[in-house]
Design a protein that fits this description.
alpha/beta, 31% helix, globular, single chain, six-stranded mixed barrel, five-stranded parallel sheet
Length: 637
């Protein structure tokens, strides 16, 4: 069996499903769609700093002299944070922004310096920056000697990455690279890096994260106001899921499944003799196993893998071949819901009670704004109800306990999660729901006896590693997993739109949110449009080695030559149909690549080699319908 859950669940929901799988049923096959957004950030922090703990806070925006935004269209993907960042620059006019991206995004338009790199070349860029910093004396030798190890190996790696070499690989001007290095490493300044899926969704995602963190360690730009590597989470509670061990390689409170001592600690907390040691399957592995017939049951909670996972042909084969598919969701209109043998109605955000953790380690308590409709139940409650029925059939798994799930409220689940953090890097034993109600959201760690959480981490230069030192990563640059070639000459990247979110199961129900971008398009550089002999609005077929999609073409100088861009949101709910052979088209992720980072197991959703050619259709038809607002959603369902 396999459990596939979501970064949109509350922490209490996550905890119950983790315990149901790894505790009661004895399987580590529980993973989350956070595997698609944050697992490389987790692995990068752990490789270098020793723990999955973002060291910064939002208040650092106001203290930064340089803001280095890389692999993130923050203006569209994190609009509230971006407003706060704009406020910080207005109050601090000398603050400089460097933006690194493969497209000229809305964020790039605000930059003092924009580096439009080629897809997948982030590590080459960061090594080139460090080469310049070393040559110009911008590194902090005292910090490196006192608080890190592994720098000599990294120095050897970056020796070959002169600004000219790095700039040639990245497709940028060497002078711009040198300027970026000087701003980043300026003596006496504070540099804050903000990054997201451009680094994470890569077959070298862990290396990219670690190479960026190298820059902060080498310059001492960490553990002080306005400085540090700040990973921006891709979902509302991806952090909470990481805290409870929601990935197939993790256990509660940032424990590692591969560590026998960590397994023993969790087993003792749960009153079990052990928890399984066999590694679970990550998201891509889980659906491949289901497609191969090795996994017979899939339980999918609050996520839409039939839209969001790469290589949709394999995902659909998995959903069709699995003997039993449970889908637990608030929306019956998703592509995944159509495959459900059992559809369980769950509450959604405005109906829930429980906690979430944001990018700056701040825990908030949510209260319902409206009552749950119909038979919808909270996700944690559904998990507990099923677990108790399973316990009656599996009494040998209780080991003398009446139940492993003695919860009568979300708070009682959270209290057990809190106890699991005692003595860990994210210790919240000093926090309570009463404190969250009285004082508002709080940052971790907040151990017993403390009155407030930590604003920023590693201020003393001590890291949660065996020797207290951070570790440099000497991993070298690796190109994209599927480079362009004569057969597939375009590099396809994907990303967010301003007014849509994920698979659009929520935002796609509101017509006004299509006012920004009304329909799916593929963006190409005007030079490529002219070379192909096409015009704006022409229907084209975008094909990869895995699938194809048909959609209109749009010329855009935000995209570099030989590249293409399609928003990530357009699944088969919006962009479907069949090809000339009658095979179904599954939206943009019918084209994307399932190759994963070997460390984080995060897929390379940000790059695929594609071919673009005119769509030879025998005829076309445009259909429109106008419905009163109160009827529109009901008709869609």
């Amino acid at each position: 069996m396999g459990f596939y859950v979501s970064g949109q669940l509350l922490t209490e929901d996550y905890y119950v499903f983790n315990k149901l799988a790894k505790g009661l049923l004895g399987t580590n096959n529980v993973d989350t769609n956070s595997r698609l957004c944050m697992s490389s950030a987790v692995a990068g922090y752990k490789r270098t700093l020793g723990a999955d703990a973002p060291p910064c806070s939002y208040e650092d925006f106001a203290h930064a002299d340089t803001v280095f935004i890389t692999g993130s269209n923050t203006a569209w993907a994190h609009p509230i944070l971006f407003r706060r960042l704009e406020d910080a620059r207005r109050a601090r006019p000398a603050q400089r922004w460097i933006v690194v991206d493969v497209r000229r995004t809305g964020t790039a338009d605000t930059a003092d310096l924009f580096l439009q790199i080629r897809p997948g070349t982030d590590v080459a860029l960061y090594h080139g920056l460090l080469h310049v910093m070393l040559a110009e004396g911008l590194t902090d030798a005292a910090y490196i000697a006192a608080h890190t190890h592994g720098f000599e190996a990294l120095r050897e790696t970056v020796r070959a990455w002169t600004p000219q070499v790095a700039a040639r690989v990245c497709g940028i001007d060497a002078d711009d690279l040198i300027q970026a290095a000087r701003w980043f490493g300026r003596r006496g300044g504070a540099t804050l890096s903000l990054y997201c899926q451009g680094l994470n969704q890569s077959s070298a995602g862990t290396d990219k994260n670690a190479a960026l963190i190298n820059l902060h360690l080498a310059t001492g730009q960490i553990g002080k106001p306005g400085a540090g590597p700040f990973s921006l989470t891709g979902q509302p509670n991806a952090m909470g899921g990481r805290e409870v061990g929601g990935l197939s390689n993790l256990l509660s409170a940032h424990r590692d499944l591969a560590n026998p001592a960590h397994r023993a600690e969790v087993a003792a907390l749960w009153g079990l003799p052990d928890v399984p040691a066999t590694p679970g399957k990550s998201a891509i592995e889980m659906f491949q196993a289901a497609a191969d017939g090795a996994i017979k049951l899939l339980w999918i909670v609050c996520t839409n893998p039939a839209q969001s996972l790469p290589d949709q042909a394999t995902v659909h084969r998995a959903l069709q071949r699995a003997e039993f598919v449970i889908v637990q969701d608030a929306f019956a209109t998703t592509a995944t819901a159509a495959h459900a043998d059992l559809l369980l109605p769950a509450t959604t955000w405005g109906e829930k009670i429980g906690t979430v953790t944001n990018s700056e380690r701040r825990i908030s308590l949510l209260r319902p704004a409206v009552p749950a409709p119909g038979e919808a139940r909270h996700d944690w409650c559904i998990g507990v109800n099923v677990a108790r029925r399973l316990e009656a059939r599996l009494p040998e798994r209780l080991h003398g306990q009446a139940t492993l799930f003695p919860y009568d409220s979300a708070e009682s689940v959270w209290n057990e999660h809190r106890e699991s953090t005692r003595g860990r890097d994210l210790d919240i034993t000093g926090l309570s729901w009463a404190m969250l109600e009285r004082d508002g959201p709080q940052q971790w760690p907040l151990p017993e006896g403390a009155s407030t959480g930590a604003v920023r981490l590693y201020t003393d230069g001590v890291f949660p590693t065996d020797d207290g030192r951070a570790r440099f990563s000497a991993a070298d640059y690796r190109p994209v997993a599927e480079p362009r070639d004569a057969q597939y000459p375009f590099a396809l990247t994907t990303g967010r739109l301003r007014d849509q979110w994920h698979g659009m199961s929520r935002t796609g129900t509101l017509g006004r949110l299509f006012g920004h971008v009304a329909e799916p398009v593929v963006e190409l550089n005007p030079l490529d449009v002219e070379r192909l002999g096409l015009q704006d609005g022409a229907l084209v077929q975008v094909s990869s080695r895995r699938g194809r999609v048909v959609l209109p073409l749009q010329a855009s100088d935000t995209v570099a030559p030989a590249q293409a861009w399609i928003p990530m949101h357009w699944g088969e709910e919006v962009l479907g149909g069949t090809d000339a052979q009658g095979q179904p088209l599954h939206g943009v992720n019918g084209v994307t690549l399932p190759v994963v980072c070997p460390t984080s197991k995060q897929p390379e959703l940000k790059h695929a080699a594609v071919r673009i050619e005119p769509a030879a259709l025998p005829w076309r038809m445009l259909g429109l319908a106008w419905l009163p607002q109160e009827q529109a959603l009901r008709t869609r369902e």
